[in-house]
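In this section we walk through a basic example: taking a raw amino acid sequence and producing a predicted 3D structure, encoded as discrete structure tokens. The instruction is simple. Fold the sequence below.
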Amino acid sequence: MQPPYDRVIRGDLVLTDRVIADGYVAVRGETVAAIGQGAPPPAAALEDHSGKLVFPGLVDGHMHTSSSTGWPGIEGATRTAAAGGVTTVCDMPYDVPRPVTDAGIFREKVEQVGRLAHVDVALYGTIRKDGGVDAIAGLAEAGASAFKLSTYEYDPLRFPRIDHHLMVTAFAEIARTNLMVAVHNEDQELVEKLTAEARAAGRTDVIMHCRTRPPLAENLANNAIFEIGLETGCHVHIAHSSLARGFEIAAGFRRAGARSSGEACVHYLCMTEEDLLRLEGFGKCNPPFRTAEEVERMWKALVAGEVAYVSTDHAPWPKERKVYKGDIFAVGAGLTGEQSFAPLMFTLLEERGLPPTLMAKYCAAEPARFHGLDPKKGSIALGADADLLVMERGSFTFDEATIQDRPEFQHSAFHGRAMRGRVAATYLRGRKVWDGSSVLARPGEGRFVPRQHRRPVALPV
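The resulting token sequence is shown next.
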């Protein structure tokens, strides 16, 4: 007789509400067929990770594969994701040379995902600076998990600022789809004026990256986007809040009847302005790192349940674009984060005496829920894809040279950081794609994951 399961994976299962010691996940085909504790059932293969923690594969709700190199970047970004225990990435639409602004471009990108990806990929859509609101419905029908707009312009074509008038029209149309719209939240006028003043004063040193993008720049943008959301009924989401105040503002608008939320990036839970001074260009991201006091406020917001989820904003630039040569404004803004995500988040929780269940919740289940990828993704649950991350506890040091991407992207703000865990294995739909030292998946084994439903996301009151 054939064994009832194709594979059984043993270990301590980390769910969002508890840890099942000496547990197992039984896989049939690509999905979870049984979950239990103790002696495992018969299976064609047994993967014994006893003594290690088995999490759901992480879902990175905010990352960029193609913002610097175009669609070929999908291959390397998803390969390093596999090594980091990230089994689903939600990829931003600001691609080189053209953003994902209509269903035709969206379908072209889906084809590239099917050819290049090592892990599964969900996709954001966006609009043009001069309009394109009529393409929103088609992007939703094509399977977009969310939309992304910006209050700050990095490039007029690839990453434009959407003015308030167009944003009102776009939000109203997005509201009809029940998808959320994430917004890059920095006030263009304030940042541009402060940057011009800094340059005029000859201040292009590293700390001026923080000084020209102060907390006020975020909070001005936050209030504007949530006010438009309240007006239009759209679910508006801060794409990356470096400030606890952002979550406080979102909660205030929810109390007024708005559908508002915000995410934190893992670096805003640990990095400070002092780290930027140490790292120089390799620590530059937007919004910038804040103070140590702000990091503590961010943790209070997370533990209080005010944060929607935690992401990486993985946005790799070639090393030469990250080197500071006397002008911090000339350096590319973005960090690598896929491979450091799981060990770093696990370490931060351990250092604060917080349970690993918070990682299962905020780095897997909640991003999957906000992007409409549940119940397929984000949880160890019957019928879900058998996406798993195996974490080995211990004393480790993160080494950027191990990043499973092109050599020009092998840099990290967390290089040399002591970690309390490492990713010992990653399973994508039941198949091992990372064995602790090598990526076993081939390009094209990852798949496009369309949004599974269009139910509105339930938000806290």
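Looking at the output, two observations stand out. The first helix runs from residue 73 to 83. The chain has a mean pLDDT of 98. In the next section we compare this with other chains.
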